Amino acid sequence: MIEESMVFWIGALIFGLSSLMFTILENRNNSRKNTFNSHVFVSFITTISYCIMALGLATVTAEGGGLIYWTRWLFYAGSCSILTLDIASIAKKPNEKKAEVAIFTFLTMFCGYLASIILTVDRWLFFVLSTAAYIGMLYTIFNKANEESSKISSIMWFVLITWSLFPLVWVLAPTGFGIIAVDITAILYLALDIVTKIIFGIYVSTRK
Amino acid sequence: MIEESMVFWIGALIFGLSSLMFTILENRNNSRKNTFNSHVFVSFITTISYCIMALGLATVTAEGGGLIYWTRWLFYAGSCSILTLDIASIAKKPNEKKAEVAIFTFLTMFCGYLASIILTVDRWLFFVLSTAAYIGMLYTIFNKANEESSKISSIMWFVLITWSLFPLVWVLAPTGFGIIAVDITAILYLALDIVTKIIFGIYVSTRK
Amino acid sequence: MIEESMVFWIGALIFGLSSLMFTILENRNNSRKNTFNSHVFVSFITTISYCIMALGLATVTAEGGGLIYWTRWLFYAGSCSILTLDIASIAKKPNEKKAEVAIFTFLTMFCGYLASIILTVDRWLFFVLSTAAYIGMLYTIFNKANEESSKISSIMWFVLITWSLFPLVWVLAPTGFGIIAVDITAILYLALDIVTKIIFGIYVSTRK
């Protein structure tokens, strides 16, 4: 049996290294000298989140018995808002729509936090509210997306598909129906974090 | 006797519906295509807040015996900051003053949260600090308001009068002197929320 | 023996008065009419923080026995982010870099909060993460600082030296090695708060 704390330490290490990598990558790139280095912050905030989970701080036990690391969703509220702000910039949204996308993302993750920390059946209400905010975020990003170049569209589809796997894991994990175990949950989230935060970041930082 | 959880469920329903209404209203209006749809977020954040109160999560019991739903004030910190940012935009304030208005509102509600969660007489200290931040917010909005059109002034007076009823309810409710009961408190706040967040939003969204 | 609550009340009084002073100072100065009055907010947030500490709310006891007022760091996350945003403006940074400086400051103080509330040896991990964010903040401010005027540079050096004394106090206080007592810690932090928030604010508000 794999212990999840090992998974979290590996995650902390990977995101600690990717924080450094993005710092170097974005400072080397002269054309990005005056841009907001969002990927440094996304990786750094994720590093803090993994350290807290690795140390087993601030968890609750699901009715089915599995540990729920609810802090994850509060840190996503920070990191993913910065990430979708970057995605909205790539999609050339006006500042007002960028703000909407970031706030919808924040609310998605905040309701995800409530759905995770609440152990009774009431949690599904916040899962529904989280989904509503997520749909609002996607709608704001995808709206008029056909006016953008196909390259931007491919990023949007990548985001849509990979991000939508997070609530799927949530539903299968101890937070939802408890079909998959805590350690497998940790591995799946880590894989999704690497894809959506590091691989996505490298692709965006190095294109053009 | 009316149970307050029923009031909160009605509030959750009303604000859930108004979130949908503002989404439709603001997307139909082409002249507002690239504006920040603040009323969608104000209603949606208020929906989350009412769900939490309806489920009776995270409360404290006042010395006088009444339940205090302190989470209300943390959600106001989010929703009302977005609302006053919109009001400052209507008053054509420069961006620096908009930021000041939003932060003053946040601090008003945050001190209101401290005044609500603290049960001893010390809570009045935070009521005073909250009032100081509220005065700072009003001063920043009203300053030079005479240079604006009379229509804008009428909005400002509407805000001044309706918003100032919130601390009045706070003082009379179990949070303050405990003169009015928990269920009446819930009804009064709901009425004020509907006036300041939905009726105000419809008026602002549909004018001109 | 000096009791630390007296130090905190003195701090609350000093920062309450400086909130008023900056309100008057910045409203009198016509050239700053449309600027963001950051020092008002820095002082006001610090006032709230000192009131909470003076009332002895929300503390933990270190393994060495001293009380840890961890709320201090959460309020620094707000006040110091506003302060470094102002410093980045003085250094004529573009908006993207101002945002980076503010977020790095927020993360420095947030990790400082985690390092303070965690009592085991694990806290040093968050001290390291806090230091990493602090270095990121300093790097973003100092980068290309040689292109700026010498006056700006002198402000930067003042910030570097005075701000770096905060982690030094943290290491010597009950949060770190417990070499200095709780009351001395409170006095040292108050002295540093006055220098970095009030004296710095007066200097910046009155120059030119």
Brief digest:
Chain A is 73% helix and 2% strand. Chain A has eight helices and two strands, in the order ααββαααααα.
Largest protein-protein interface: A-B, 18 and 17 residues
Unreliable spans of chain A are: none
Give the assembly state of these chains: homotrimer
Estimate the helix proportion of chain A, in percent.
over 70%
Number of helices of chain A: 8
Radius of gyration of chain A: 17 Å
Morphology of chain A: globular
Largest sheet of chain A: 2 strands, antiparallel
Report the average pLDDT across residues of chain A. Answer: 90
Tell me the number of strands of chain A: 2
Q: What is the H/E string of chain A? A: HHEEHHHHHH
Strand content of chain A: under 5%
Which structural class fits the helix and strand makeup of chain A? mainly alpha
Notable features of this structure?
homotrimer, mainly alpha, two-stranded antiparallel ribbon, 8 helices
How would you describe the overall organization of this protein?
The structure is a homotrimer of 208-residue chains. Chain A is mainly alpha-helical. Chain A has 8 helices and 2 strands. Chain A has helices spanning 4-28, 38-54, 71-90, 95-117, 123-142, 150-163, 165-172, 182-206, and strands at residues 60-61, 67-68. In chain A, strands 1-2 form a two-stranded antiparallel ribbon. In chain A, a hairpin with a 5-residue loop joins β1 and β2. The longest helix of chain A has 25 residues, at 4-28. Chain A starts with a helix and ends with a helix. At the A-B interface, α4 and α5 of A face α2 of B.
